[in-house]
Amino acid sequence: MSKRKLIVRLKHLYLHAYVWFWIFVAIFPVLWIISMSLDPRNISKPTTLTLIPPGASLAAYLRVLKHPYQGANVSFVRLLWNSLLVAGGTALLSVLFGATAAYAFSRFKFPGRKAGMLSFLVVFMLPASATLAPLFVILTFLHIRDSLWGLVFAYTSSSLPFAIWNLKGYFDTVPKELEEAALVDGCDRNSAFFRVILPLSVPAIAVTVLFGFMNGWTEWMLAWTFLTKPKSFTLAMTLYNMVGQWNTPWSNFAAFSILVSLPIIIIWFLLQKYIVSGLTLGGVKG
Amino acid sequence: MVDYSDIGLWEKIRRNKLAYKYILPAALVMAIVTAYPIVYEVWMAFTNFSIVNLKNPHPAFVGLRNFIMILKNQVPLENFNFWRTLGFNVIWTVVNVFFHVTIGISLAMALNTPKFALKKLYRALLIIPWAVPSYISALIWRNMFDTQFGAVNLLLAKLGLPHNIAWLTNPNAPIKFLSILPYAFYADLITNVWLGFPFMMVVATGALQSIPKELYEAARIDGASEAGQFFHITLPLIRFAMMPAIMLGVIWTFNQFNIIYLVSGGGPLGETEILVTQAYKLVNPGGLFGIASAFGLVVFLILLGITLFTNRITKATESAL
Amino acid sequence: MKRIKILSVLLAVMLVALVFAGCAPKQASKPQQEPKEKPITITIWHAWSGAELDTLNDAISKYKKLHPNVTINQLQVPFDQLKNKFQTAAASGGGPDILVGPADWIGDFTKANLIAPMDSYVDSDFLSHYVKGAINQVTYDGKLMAMPESTECVALIYNKSLVKSVPKTTDDMIKLADSLHKGDTYGLVYNTGFYFTAGYFFAAGMKLFDANHNAIVAQGNGGVIALEFLKKLASDKNIIAANDYGKADSMFKEGKAAMIINGPWAVGDYVKALGADKVGVAPMPIFSPTGKPFAPFVNTKDFMLNANSDDAHKKAAMDFIKFMTSKEIEQEFFEKAKHIPSNLDVNTSSDPIVDGFIKQMKTGVPMPIIPEMGAVWNPMQNAIDSVLAGKATPQDAIKAAQEAINKKISAMRNNAK
Q1: CA of C18: which chain A residue's CA is closest?
Q2: Domain covering A76-231+253-282, topology
Q3: Are C375 and C409 contacting, i.e. CB atoms less than 8 angstroms apart?
């Protein structure tokens, strides 16, 4: 008995060591960013490997909070608000449009169903090497190019394929009988969808929200191509703006990076319990 | 045109009106933002569209010339060799996905061990690379691979290992018989493996949790070893569940622009270029939109081929459809 | 059925809201008869930062006082996004009235009809106040396509507490670097980018183009001599040579490098890091293998005029450009941001640092602005990198570079047809 316990103990010890190795790998760059953000010298590279550099201070954080975008007087709060708007809008539209489409793909056997599913997948495979110019033209034509709405629109389209596939996979695992019971009880399809399917699909919806939010929160290239008014800029694009033609103020960049990453990491931890079950790629098929 | 002789189809469409209504908003967004530019890209691939045509979009139709130029290595890029780049691109994808999957599954299994302490905390910490915006990670890793002051070499020095490695600029291969893979390949690889293993870990966790515990108990009673349990229960059961994620991983990694572009920039001497970074360089600074579009289509066809081929063997998406 | 109606109404409202929410006012306002009276807004896109951005803002408020009816809107864009952003916007009929960018964009933009010539707004008397080489550089196909704001080139920057007297020849420079290497302090840190090393190639006698704009970099032995020289530098243990701007830069800032080859944009930071009395600038030493002076690329930073702007906006924008390149404003850019003025009336004698760059420029060559120049950078960089890595002989490398450049050029021309 005690020998078996010992073996289990040793096995656990070994596994802990293995996991800790990968934890170290996972957080090593994060420690490096923290170290740089505390470095008062704002030089390109710290010369030694210390978590707390000599003369560590929060000055870099104060600098970027006070003056996040060199080009104009836009407050950090304003940029934060814009980022929340874009990321939140992308998350909301991805869920709304993604869930309705995924429901149709999951529950109806209609002509064009397979082709429709596949065409959403195809978008993943085609690299958009030269499509910026036509996208610019069409968003300008719709009068949403130079606004946060244009970004929400563009980001939603890049979030939708994954959202639809993932949500459809999850809807497939919700037993049809539940819905049928609701239909028998006098609900129509819509209320069956909203009252039965959606409440049962919280994990998959959480994953869609998370990915949509992340997409909107971090994109900078389209944002720099489309926007021209500093008051509608986002955090991600002003962070990219710090990477200079010749030089990057690394302490500021690191501090800004941490400020930009923090909300995402917090949301990750809040939604973490849903991720495993909501990511249907792992196929928890009922 | 609708085929009126087939009343069945018409009837089917009519009966499923609601389905189309449900799909409409998503389809509308996709049509406006994605489909139109894609159609435009396909058209450009058959023309000599260049920077001059941005304002005056009447390029000449050149048929398959752009595609022939790509396959015959006549594209105006330095050291360009389509087949070498394609080979590198395939190696890059296979090696990355291999590490993503093996590390992901091993960690998921470790954390799935019964009565394993601190697993929630561990999972939260291991997920960090996925949660940090990827362009920030890429820029930070580039900084960390600096020869003299980079964190990677400083760490190697602390561990007493060889540490004067010019990760991003040494065009020679550290492993002699893998001469196609310079140091920068390993720098890109480390970055992308770091970035990608948490995703596979999460997917594998979901797959492992769906395996009934009774199977293991039965195997244990039959006297199966740990290895035997892994090869006879775990692997066969998670294989099908992992397949769609692996397919997705292949597509993502094959077109992993950000890491290659921001970490090694395709260098040194273009040895770490992949197809999409080459396509980007044709547009910027080249301004050769036509050839770049053709390049995009070639990449698409390759990926489509890989997907259909794997699909045949594994029916990866079959179950999801 | 009720719910689907509510849903579809909701979606429709959202779509409509999306479409109309951000109706961005288009540039266009109709040509105005009396631009002096009517309010007009001029937009300007640039990648200036730090002191140069402050100087721009000061200039804008000064201009506003003189012309209360004109509003100038400036927008700072990351440098690596600026060309693409302008190109995309201007191609679809929009964009700013004024773009600030390096001269090597002019060829592409002119061919694509994105920028407008300025000849009708200036006369020869006006132009005579500017550095002739700068005006020549921005003249494309006989038309003045931009107004130069400042000129740039690389020169030798040294730490005065380590370097007592500036070396006269490259042989002296190498000897000095060898003697200065102690511990982790190096005599010379060297960026091997082609932009930074071009001065040696031209000093060695290399030419870029023939009269038909085809590359001739492998003609003669200039390229080979320069590559051999660079290889010698790189193999010297007392010199750090790498194609890494950040590293060279930070070593110099930390006082761990006695000499560096860099441009005026870096001097401000060096002065901040080391102190004004420690930073010296001088022309690069004579290139010993040929006895010719170092001949770096001289490039201008320019104001360009958007071809899409209407006549009233062009006129107003041009007036602002003239103000920005006037003696008064250029003096400010010189004093505050260390810009090397293109305006000859600016007094620069007070500053030994800027003076060092001006001396270096006298032996420089203007960077060609023909679109073919875009094909040169990567192949030449490849030649340098492969020679330094021991992957190719200088002879083979320069030959390969010429082939690659000409291949690119012919693809560009075929495509433009």
Answers
A1: A149
A2: MetI-like fold (1.10.3720)
A3: yes
